[in-house]
Structures are given as structure tokens and as C-alpha cells.
Write a structure and sequence with these properties.
This protein is of the alpha/beta class. It contains 12 helices and 15 strands. It has an 8-stranded mixed sheet with strand order 3-2-1-4-5-6-7-8, sandwiched between helices. Strands 10-9-13-14-15 form a 5-stranded parallel sheet, covered by helices on one side. Helix 9 crosses helix 10. The mean pLDDT is about 95. It binds nicotinamide-adenine-dinucleotide. The site of nicotinamide-adenine-dinucleotide has 29 residues, from helix 1 and helix 4.
């Protein structure tokens, strides 16, 4: 079976690497640089080993392309393109639309189309299917299914194989073929009654995290005002063996999922006349954390940051990945610069970002740890500045929540 995977980023390349063991995979991406790099056997995604790609390339099981003509004879298509927010923070389906165009214009025999991109309930039925039909210009009866991706890049314990996968087709045949496809490389498949349930479940999983992160971020402000340790209090609460799940405070939430997916749910809720107050407020609380952190740092440093050199340690949105999408570090840096601080950042995993490069981990007046990669030595952080504020809770004996 020949499989096309549209989008070769975190999700698409991860699936490609697993699927390569069983199928001939064509990785379609519209970024020529990424495609060239992949075809030379170099992975740009944490968790996808270049050696695996090289193995599949050598045996003719994997090839990346920017050309629609390379997907004309595939049997199955997976969509794994971005679903970001627009400038006015609304769901932006333009990448999905472009992927539908690629499929519609090139795939001229009936295939199974599976969407893995995260979007609101109804996207498969009311958006993807009609869009592909529109771009096909001829009546082709494709099968359509959804199987939301749950990959957590950089994570060692859970992967494609041992993370249960939800799925549902628009028809029973689509469901069954989707199950067959994933059963090659996924141990547990969970069928739900409609694509809308699978789409909503994915959004709710990330909304659950967003709301709980906001709650603990607010709680960190409460414990600080009360003069007690947030970490000790959370550890104490966590001794309860049921009904509690520990989340830890942070400078905010980043990545492509937690700051974005809940807004997809809120948008569809409000469109259908249902409230989304928790989601909206949680978003605000998480966004406000960067200001709270800078306020605390400013208060500890004589009430002014004017002219002070501040080193932000870790600008990736989470440890051990180079992903800076929606990173809280961006807002922290913005608040610091608005208050006259001279800001540099250190993150050798990210390397360069927004036209700036990672600075040495030394010589600052103030260091604020936003993300702590395993590769960063704690002692080096402690000697980088006389004042250190740690938002991760990993560094002992310094200021923090
Ligand atoms: N990253 C995660 O941890 C994660 C987890 C679960 C779900 N998701 C969801 O999966 C989807 C993809 O996310 P991602 O993190 O892989 O994104 P990504 O930015 O890492 O990769 C997307 C890739 O798609 C390519 N692309 C964009 N438009 C295209 C088009 N029209 N045709 C072909 N390629 C195109 C880009 O060049 C890029 O390489 C999103 O909906 C996201 O919400 C992501």
C-alpha cells in the first residue's frame, strides 16, 4: 500500500517514520528546504531518528516531495498540517484547505483520507470532505476518517505504539480501514461513534490541561500572597490517592496545542450558543503569567528593570525540544524590554530565534529560567547572575513561585 502524508512536521514525520516499516510512504510538504533535508536522510523532528529515515529511504519506503504528481497513485492520505489561530485568534483552516486542494487536484481514484490535524467537531464532515470534492472537479467517492494525533514530541515513555488512538470514519468502511491502517503500528485503537466525538475529545483533552494549568498558575499567585510554598502545598495535595492530579505553575503555556486547541473549542461553542467562560478565562490567566513573573522580578530588584541586563534561560516552549511556537518566553521578553531591561536569552537547543542567537549563560544582572533543558547545567544557571528567578521549580535555593 502506498501512503501519502501531507505535512512533514512533528505529527506527519512521526507518522511517516512508523508507517515506513509497513508501507511505501510519500511525505508531501510544501517547504522545499524541509523536503530536501528529509530526502538527504536528516530528520528535523525530535523523536524521529535520522537513521530510521535513512533506512526507509534506502529500501524505497520513504521519499519526501513538494510535487502533487507524486501522490496520484496513493491508496491512503493522512492530513497533518498546521491548524493555528488567525490574527484575530480565530480557528484558521487555510492550511487544511490547501491540503484538501493538493488531494483534490491530484488524487483521482477513491482513497481513504484520514485527518490527524486538530480542529473543531464537524471539520471532517463539513469542511474537509466538501473541500476535497470541490477541488476534485469530478465525483470521486473517497472514504473519510479522523484520528486525532496525541504525540508529545520529546517524550520517551509514550509514543505512537503505546498511546491509545481514537478513530471514527464517516462510514463504517472508512472506520474499518482506518483501524486496519493504524493497527500496524499502534497497540490500542479506540473506535468512537462519530468523527465529531473524536474531534471534540482531542480538543477537550488539551482544554483540560489548559484549564488546570491556569488554575495552578492562579494558585501560585495565591500561595505567594499567603507566604506559603506552592510546591510544598501541591506535593501535600498530591498525597491524596484519588480525585487530584498535580499540575505545576509556569510562565505560561506554549506549543501548538495548549494555547491554541481550547480556542477552537471555545469558537465552536460560542458559534453554537454555548458558554466557553472557563476556556476564555484560562487563556487570559496563562497569558498574564508572563507579566506576573516580570512584576515579581522587578519588585525583587529595587522596583525598576531600567538598564538591567536580564538573561532569559530557555526559550523553547518546553524542555528538550527546539519548538518555540507560542512560547511564554516571548511575552516575558516583551514585558522586560518594555520596562527598559537589556534582554538576551540562552537556549542552545533552539540556537537562533527571531534573528537573535543564544547568548552565553553568564554575566547578567538577572536570570529568569523559563524552560530548563536537561542539557543545561544547574550550576551554570546559578553562576549566570547574582539574582535568579526560576519559573520551573527545578532549581533549588533561588527565587521562584
Ligand atoms: N506538535 C504536536 O505535538 C501535535 C500533537 C497533536 C496534534 N497536533 C496537530 O497536528 C497538526 C500538525 O501539527 P505539527 O506540530 O505537525 O505542525 P508542524 O508545523 O510541525 O508541521 C506542519 C508541516 O506541514 C507543512 N505544511 C503546511 N501547509 C502545507 C500544505 N498545504 N501542504 C503540505 N505541507 C504543508 C509545513 O511546512 C510543516 O512542515 C496540527 O493540527 C496540530 O494541532 C500537533
Amino acid at each position: 500500500m502506498k501512503v501519502a502524508i501531507i505535512g512533514q512536521g512533528y505529527v506527519g514525520l512521526t507518522i511517516s517514520a512508523f508507517a515506513g516499516e509497513f508501507f511505501e510512504v510519500v511525505g508531501f510538504d510544501n517547504n522545499q528546504k524541509i523536503v530536501n533535508q528529509l530526502n538527504s536522510g536528516i530528520s528535523h523532528i525530535e523523536g524521529v531518528e535520522s537513521s530510521v529515515l535513512q533506512k526507509w529511504i534506502k529500501t524505497g519506503r520513504y521519499r519526501a516531495t513538494t510535487s502533487g504528481s507524486d501522490i496520484v497513485d496513493v491508496d491512503l492520505v493522512v492530513i497533518a498540517v498546521p491548524t493555528p489561530l488567525s490574527k484575530d485568534r480565530q480557528p484558521d483552516l487555510t492550511y487544511i484547505d490547501a491540503a484538501c486542494r493538493t488531494i483534490g487536484e491530484n488524487v483521482k481514484k477513491p482513497v481513504l483520507v484520514i485527518n490527524e490535524s486538530t480542529s473543531f467537531p464537524g471539520t471532517l464532515r463539513n469542511y474537509i470532505k466538501p473541500a476535497i470534492e470541490k477541488y476534485s472537479n469530478s465525483p470521486i467517492e473517497h472514504l473519510y476518517a479522523i484520528s486525532p494525533e496525541r504525540v508529545d514530541p520529546g517524550r520517551g515513555d509514550f509514543n505512537q505504539k503505546n498511546t491509545p488512538r481514537l478513530y471514527a470514519g464517516l462510514t463504517a468502511e472508512a472506520s474499518e480501514k482506518t483501524r486496519e491502517f493504524y493497527s500496524h503500528f499502534c497497540d490500542e485503537l479506540v473506535k468512537v461513534s462519530s468523527p465529531e466525538v473524536a474531534e471534540a475529545a482531542k480538543l477537550f483533552e488539551n482544554t483540560f490541561r489548559q484549564v488546570n494549568i491556569a488554575l495552578v498558575n492562579e494558585f501560585a499567585q495565591i500561595t505567594n500572597a499567603l507566604g506559603i510554598s506552592v510546591y510544598e502545598t501541591l506535593d501535600a495535595a498530591n498525597t491524596k490517592p484519588y480525585g487530584f492530579m498535580k499540575f505545576t505553575p509556569s510562565a505560561g503555556v506554549g506549543g501548538h496545542c495548549i494555547p491554541v486547541d481550547p480556542t477552537y473549542l471555545a469558537a465552536v461553542a460560542e458559534e453554537n450558543g454555548a458558554p466557553a467562560t472557563f476556556i476564555r478565562r484560562a487563556n487570559e490567566v496563562n497569558l498574564e503569567m508572563s507579566k506576573y513573573v516580570v512584576d515579581r522580578v522587578q519588585a525583587d530588584n529595587g522596583g525598576s528593570l531600567q538598564g538591567k541586563s536580564v538573561l532569559v534561560v530557555g526559550v523553547a516552549y518546553k524542555p528538550n525540544v527546539a519548538d518555540v511556537r507560542e512560547t511564554a518566553a516571548e511575552l516575558v521578553i516583551e514585558h522586560l524590554r518594555n520596562r527598559g531591561a537589556v534582554v538576551t536569552w540562552h537556549d542552545d537547543v533552539v540556537g537562533s530565534w527571531r534573528g537573535e542567537s543564544s547568548a552565553p549563560l553568564s554575566g547578567a544582572d538577572i536570570a529568569i529560567v523559563v524552560t530548563k533543558h536537561d542539557s543545561v547545567n544547574e550550576r551554570d544557571i546559578l553562576t549566570s547572575a547574582p539574582y535568579v528567578f526560576d519559573t520551573t521549580g527545578k532549581i533549588k535555593g533561588v527565587k521562584g513561585f
